[in-house]
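Appendix C reproduces, verbatim, an entry submitted by the partner laboratory led by Prof. M.T., so that reviewers can inspect both the input and the predicted structure.
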Amino acid sequence: MTEVAKRLSAGSTSAQTREAASAVIAGRRRGPLALLPFLGPAVIASVAYMDPGNFATNIQGGASFGYRLLWVVLFANLIAMLFQALSAKLGIVTGRNLAELCRKYFPKPVVIFYWIVSEIAAMATDLAEFLGATIGFNLLFGLSLGIGVILTAALTYSILLVERRGFRPIEMVIGALVGVMAISYLVELVDAHPAWREIGHGLLVPWIGGRESLFLSVGIVGATIMPHAIYLHSYLTQGRVVARGLHEKRAIMSWSNREVVIALSIAGLVNIAMMVMAASVFHDGVHDNVASIETAYATLTPLLGRAAAGVFLISLFASGVSSSVVGTMAGQVIMQGFVGWRIPLWFRRLVTMLPAVIVVVAGFDTTKVLILSQVVLSFALPLPLFALMIFTNRRSLMGDFVNGRVTMVAGAFGTVVILALNLVLLFQMLTGA
């Protein structure tokens, strides 16, 4: 077991949680609450699918095309479930995270390339998340972007300090923020009075209209699978509940898969609710061009009232803060995993957060910065997907848990689809097509 795995097994979960997990595996504890000891890693990873970038694409999709692109959100979420489940399996079976395995098995030049690209991607991810929370501070409290980003950094760092007491407390904090987002959008749906029949049709009947809707569909799918979520999930499961033998590993993986389905189903429902709200409120021939978070808030206020607009901002703020925490966690996992030596915790976190603070304080155009961050992520995304498929398909590493034929084909298909869509998205951003 690696040093990180030993630390995780010793301190990331309480003795009570580990005993509860052992009782479930041994069959002494049953029922719906049996999932609780295994709940956490997928909840944290799911935040990547409810970040401020998702707000922007879903709002634009609903405002411009109504309910017609809901099937794209559903499709993207199903692909996400597959890759997050594979990432969790990698950590459970090997006791190592994806970054550590890359360092161990790839040639050194490839490792260096992976590390640099992944580190830049982590910074780009945190940049977008910090901007979302900063916009939330700005619209909720009237604070300047500069003050907002500093407060976001301070709040993010404070939440991350909870990790010193183990992962369970921070899992509860992130879970609470996810709950805030889910409840907020439940309230938004009640206020929006959507057309339920059209929702069902949009989810089940694929539709691609013209060029604009195609590119927006590419943006929704291409921005869904985040590199940092792939790296982080394998870290969160390595050694979290230590298995003794194949039977226990199978049991842990079974519970992990259930958690992935539940957590990402909630994330998917939140994303669907975002688009449904936008379709119900903005797709009226007058507000079809609502594309930014600020515009959505300004438009919601006269249409649904200040209370509904306030709920929207609360969900945005919860999204920005939680995704900033998760993005920063992923940044430190990537740095630690690839370089292979211990780095002071404050330095790893500072490296990930500092670019976002500099960009906002320096007064750069936030819209252009967000676009640039998406370009960076489009370049970086294929790397962890390729590595994940290579390792989970390697019998010498996975043993009896190597991917089956169906999983192998589905994973290869998902990787090709994501790569193709990201290339199209990248072409759109670079050419302005």
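The two ends are 50 Å apart (CA to CA). Additional entries are available on request from the coordinating office.
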